[in-house]
């Protein structure tokens, strides 16, 4: 029985023993636990002396919000390593270069956006009225669009996105696991739990290659017009979009489609208050298509790709809106998009929307013909990633071995970008003379990741101080980023604009050039109109920095910030009181958006993690009694009214504090 229990109750699971075990038997407990959490408590895969996480662990890392660039890009899940920067150069022939430049130079970008010679309703077949020269001009425009799209998609980056960086997509591309349909659990729950559940499934679904998502399966009869692709942050949605677009632009796949038109929600946000027709919208975001006219859009087979619905700042109303069926008709952008998705506008056009699961509800099921889910790397693909990243075979084997020994790391490496974070930290620790223990908890790992990025920045730009030392300027900038991360985590924002940075005291130019920290952790996305959008490399990095900021506020006794967050009238009296209230606030969240944040908060209470951060946090002398109070609060939390799925984060907090007593006590119960 768990410590602190006075009844037959297992509060970590939110149920009484009788409710959880039913018969109270050992076999019943094992079966129900394995069924619910997909992990055996007596797994032989874990060594006897290694800490074992009984519950599936988290997915982490902030979404690369790919250049959607993850633009689109956040989500571009990048697979580039530092060792691949000097990749194979793809030389083109002089004839090819001359031809491409001729096509690009002939783009007529002077035509006014939206100009059209006729409306959609009265247009005749373009083939019937086009003259030979006009037909050639349009074909040249299409070729120019393909060249532009190829240049945009042929290189991928990971973590950083700087001019000239990246490696060829086709050189490193690994097929992601994509299935038709989605997990039953995929709704508004925190993506940490979604990833855990995905990892434990013996998936029987038939995978679909990204280039085949519009192709009807043999047993299906329906026409597929709208595809909605779900997947957690950083799992590779934008990467799939990029690969699909590149294959089309290179003439390899889906050549029955006349034009592939990527339009990321991130970029569309920039014109959400403007009025446009669909034709002018295309002219704005794809200048190579200036010669395209309304009648062309009605007879061609078009594919619109709306990447990153979770980043949208539009209010899409599919019930009450103006009906638009003419590509030259001007309206608000959100109304255009709704009509396009519903099929009122260009009913023959294909639509592909990607989204994190929690945001997918914005598209009515009646509008969607196929739902797919990107599930990331399989176990074999995880190993392939690390073998490709490191030319040192021995190093890759050691890293793979360590990841397999840590259930948390192994589960999180479903996400390609998390493989990148893990690789950065473990490579740094395994290739230098370090006697310290390799990270096994998330807070350990992320604390080391932050230090590695700071060190890289100093090695790149030089300086008198030692690479591992944090200057006051470093601390100030990181805490400002932490404030930004925290304030927007509460609001549910993962994308930020210049005005958001300024509100947190951040100088835009400083953030842009502070590349040792900000390029890896905080990315500047250059998009249409040269307006910048900012994001953290992955959601979990935003959550980690938010926790660092809040813990710093606690150590500095900043009661105003703490009380505003906790919404308590009574002041916080101690560390255990602070963490208890933060936990309670997180458990009240319907979608668990504060779960990982609170998990990091508990991990940061350990002096070992405070030391790793090297002065960023005021190191506290936490007496053993204080830490024990925190542990007792977690174990004694009355969670009868909390579902097991929600209360399981309490267990994660205990593991983050390196407490093994719960694991030991459950094992003792099983043996009794």
UniProtKB/TrEMBL annotation:
<keyword id="KW-0067">ATP-binding</keyword>
<keyword id="KW-0963">Cytoplasm</keyword>
<dbReference type="InterPro" id="IPR041075">
    <property type="entry name" value="NOD1/2_WH"/>
</dbReference>
<dbReference type="GO" id="GO:0005524">
    <property type="term" value="F:ATP binding"/>
</dbReference>
<dbReference type="Pfam" id="PF14484">
    <property type="entry name" value="FISNA"/>
</dbReference>
<dbReference type="Pfam" id="PF17779">
    <property type="entry name" value="WHD_NOD2"/>
</dbReference>
<keyword id="KW-0547">Nucleotide-binding</keyword>
<keyword id="KW-0433">Leucine-rich repeat</keyword>
<feature type="domain" description="NACHT">
    <location>
        <begin position="225"/>
        <end position="359"/>
    </location>
</feature>
<dbReference type="InterPro" id="IPR007111">
    <property type="entry name" value="NACHT_NTPase"/>
</dbReference>
<dbReference type="Pfam" id="PF17776">
    <property type="entry name" value="NLRC4_HD2"/>
</dbReference>
<feature type="compositionally biased region" description="Basic and acidic residues">
    <location>
        <begin position="124"/>
        <end position="140"/>
    </location>
</feature>
<dbReference type="InterPro" id="IPR041267">
    <property type="entry name" value="NLRP_HD2"/>
</dbReference>
<dbReference type="Pfam" id="PF05729">
    <property type="entry name" value="NACHT"/>
</dbReference>
<dbReference type="InterPro" id="IPR051261">
    <property type="entry name" value="NLR"/>
</dbReference>
<feature type="region of interest" description="Disordered">
    <location>
        <begin position="104"/>
        <end position="140"/>
    </location>
</feature>
<dbReference type="InterPro" id="IPR027417">
    <property type="entry name" value="P-loop_NTPase"/>
</dbReference>
<keyword id="KW-0677">Repeat</keyword>
<protein>
    <recommendedName>
        <fullName>NACHT domain-containing protein</fullName>
    </recommendedName>
</protein>
<dbReference type="InterPro" id="IPR029495">
    <property type="entry name" value="NACHT-assoc"/>
</dbReference>
<dbReference type="GO" id="GO:0005737">
    <property type="term" value="C:cytoplasm"/>
</dbReference>
């Amino acid at each position: 029985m768990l410590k602190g229990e006075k009844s037959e109750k297992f509060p970590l699971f939110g149920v009484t023993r009788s409710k959880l075990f039913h018969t109270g038997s050992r076999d019943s407990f094992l079966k129900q636990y394995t069924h619910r959490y997909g992990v055996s408590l007596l797994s032989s895969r874990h060594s006897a002396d290694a800490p074992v996480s009984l519950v599936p662990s988290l997915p982490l890392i902030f979404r690369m919000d790919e250049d959607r660039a993850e633009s689109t890009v956040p989500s571009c899940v990048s697979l580039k390593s530092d060792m691949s920067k000097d990749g194979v150069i793809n030389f083109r022939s002089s004839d090819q270069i001359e031809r491409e430049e001729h096509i690009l130079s002939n783009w007529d970008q002077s035509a006014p956006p939206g100009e059209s010679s006729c409306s959609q309703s009265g247009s005749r077949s373009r083939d019937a009225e086009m003259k030979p020269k006009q037909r050639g001009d349009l074909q040249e425009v299409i070729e120019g669009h393909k060249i532009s799209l190829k240049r945009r998609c042929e290189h991928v980056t990971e973590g950083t996105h700087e001019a000239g960086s990246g490696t060829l997509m086709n050189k490193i591309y690994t097929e992601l696991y994509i299935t038709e349909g989605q997990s039953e659990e995929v709704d508004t729950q925190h993506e940490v739990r979604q990833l855990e559940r995905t990892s434990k499934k013996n998936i029987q679904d038939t995978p679909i290659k990204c280039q085949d998502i519009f192709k009807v399966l043999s047993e299906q009869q329906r026409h597929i017009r709208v595809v909605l692709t779900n997947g957690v942050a950083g799992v590779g949605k934008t990467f799939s979009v990029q690969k699909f677009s590149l294959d089309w632009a290179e003439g390899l796949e889906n050549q029955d489609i006349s034009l592939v038109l990527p339009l990321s929600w991130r970029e569309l946000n920039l014109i959400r208050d403007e009025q446009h027709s669909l034709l002018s919208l295309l002219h704005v975001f794809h200048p190579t298509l200036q010669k395209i006219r309304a009648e062309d859009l009605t007879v061609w087979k078009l594919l619109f790709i709306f990447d990153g619905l979770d980043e949208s700042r539009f209010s899409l109303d599919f019930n009450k809106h103006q009906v638009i069926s003419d590509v030259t008709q001007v309206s608000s952008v959100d109304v255009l998009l709704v009509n396009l998705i519903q099929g009122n506008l260009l009913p023959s056009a294909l639509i592909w929307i990607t989204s994190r699961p929690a945001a997918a509800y914005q598209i009515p099921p009646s509008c969607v013909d196929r739902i797919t889910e990107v599930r990331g790397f399989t176990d074999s693909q995880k190993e392939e990633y690390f073998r490709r990243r490191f030319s040192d075979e021995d190093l890759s084997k050691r890293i793979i071995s360590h990841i397999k020994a840590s259930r948390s790391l192994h589960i999180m490496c479903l996400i390609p970008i998390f493989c990148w974070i893990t690789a950065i930290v473990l490579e740094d620790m395994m290739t230098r003379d370090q006697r310290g223990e390799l990270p096994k908890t998330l807070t350990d790992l992320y604390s080391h990741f932050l230090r590695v990025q700071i060190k890289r920045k100093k090695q790149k730009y030089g300086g008198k101080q030692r690479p591992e030392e944090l200057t006051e300027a470093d601390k100030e900038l990181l805490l400002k980023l932490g404030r930004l991360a925290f304030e927007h985590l509460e609001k549910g924002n993962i994308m930020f604009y210049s005005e958001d940075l300024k509100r947190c005291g951040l100088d835009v130019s400083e953030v842009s050039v502070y590349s040792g920290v900000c390029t890896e952790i905080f990315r500047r996305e250059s998009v249409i109109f040269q307006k910048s959008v900012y994001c953290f490399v992955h959601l979990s990095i935003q959550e980690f920095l938010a926790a660092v900021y809040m813990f710093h506020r606690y150590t500095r006794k900043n009661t105003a910030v703490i009380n505003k967050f906790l919404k308590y009238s009574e002041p916080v009296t101690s560390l255990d009181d602070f963490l208890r209230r933060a936990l309670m606030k997180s458990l009240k969240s319907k979608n668990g958006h504060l779960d990982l944040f609170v998990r990091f908060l508990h991990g940061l209470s350990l002096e070992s993690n405070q030391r790793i951060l090297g002065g960023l946090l005021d190191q506290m002398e936490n007496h053993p009694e204080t830490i024990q109070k925190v542990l007792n609060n977690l174990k004694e939390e009355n969670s009868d009214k909390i579902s097991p799925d929600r209360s399981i984060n309490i267990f994660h907090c205990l593991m983050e504090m390196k407490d093994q007593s719960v694991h030991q006590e459950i094992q003792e119960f099983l043996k009794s």
